[in-house]
Amino acid sequence: MKITGVQIYEVKPRWIFCKVETDEGVSGWGEMVSGTKTRTVVEGARELSQRIVGRDPFEIERIWQELHRSFFRGGPINGTIVSGLEMALWDIKGKALGVPVWQLLGGKARDRVRVYSWIGGDRPSDVANGAADRLAKGFRAVKMNATEELHYVDTYDKVQQVVDRVESIRSACGNEIEIGIDFHGRVHKPMAKVLAYALAPYHPMFIEEPVLPENWESFDDISREVPIPIATGERLYSRWEFKRLFVQGAVDIIQPDVSLCGGILEMRKIIAMAEAFDMAAAPHAPYGPIALAATLQVDACSPNVFIQEQSLGIHYNQGFDLLDFVKNKEVFQYSDGYVDVPSGPGLGLEIDEEKVKAVSAEGLVWRNPSWKNYDGTIAEW
């Protein structure tokens, strides 16, 4: 079997799909992150994909090493391109052998995967009703953005607003639901400690990205200040960037993104490394259906994954949602806050390619919001 070509599709609301084709008619699907540089990722994917045409799609590790180990390696652009192509190769291999990808990664370690749902939007609001709605639908865990713009040192009334929102969830749902609170890198070290300390009485499931990953040394300070598990990792590429977190030992939960960190096998390696350091994993997956399906393959065989992000109904999915491009919609059927381990060959998805082509023809322009503080300085989104 040889790779004959790669098709790249830009898909609303903010996804990039790739289809790797072979001379035996078996094709595989992958997904890349558009971020704020859709054109750059698409053109880079078309350039890099030429290096795998004519290759054996089963040689996933060899191809990955060649694509990753360029002179300038890593980074979000190359990281997401390599990730998308890699997961498509696993899809091909699983389909050709007639087994799910998790079967090729050592077999499953669980029967189902716990999932959580997003509430509240970019500027969090009405979170109590959102949590109550998810609870009624069977979810037992939600995640929300903590705050809007926050300066290096800001007013306590903004901290109180966050506390009030979390308290409203506890008032509406009691302890029946767990709450992940995403600081989203919007909070700087001086306020991160204040905010985390104020939230501790409400027993969050975790606080996510309390500071940006480049300020990793601050995780030590925050972990000593508050008894809340710290989660991070969605912006990191490959196991080498995670290595610092493992050695430091301050982070409790890692959140690699299969569409960014290097793909399926790289995420499996990262999560296995975390297991050796007695750390949990809750993989990042707020994008499209292919990325989520690929993530579930790793979840299936990773015992330290305790919960999975999923993006059905997330506030970014304007116009289209995960199931719109999937024929076998039952693959993302949630019950009592869980999803079954995928059983179909490859990634387990049947992609509606005609719809993908039609939507892709409309083009894609997606940019994250640009925020400013009260004094005109740039605020982290």
From TrEMBL:
Lineage, broadest ranks: Bacteria, Bacillati, Actinomycetota, Coriobacteriia, Coriobacteriales
Top-level taxon of origin: Bacteria
Sorted UniProt keywords: Lyase, Magnesium, Metal-binding
Residue ranges of every copy of the Mandelate racemase/muconate lactonizing enzyme C-terminal domain listed in the record: 124-229
Keyword Ribosomal protein recorded: no
PANTHER family, sorted: D-GALACTONATE DEHYDRATASE, D-GALACTONATE DEHYDRATASE-RELATED
SUPFAM superfamilies, per the entry: Enolase C-terminal domain-like (SSF51604), Enolase N-terminal domain-like (SSF54826)
GO molecular function: galactonate dehydratase activity
Protein name: Galactonate dehydratase
Enzyme Commission numbers on file: 4.2.1.6
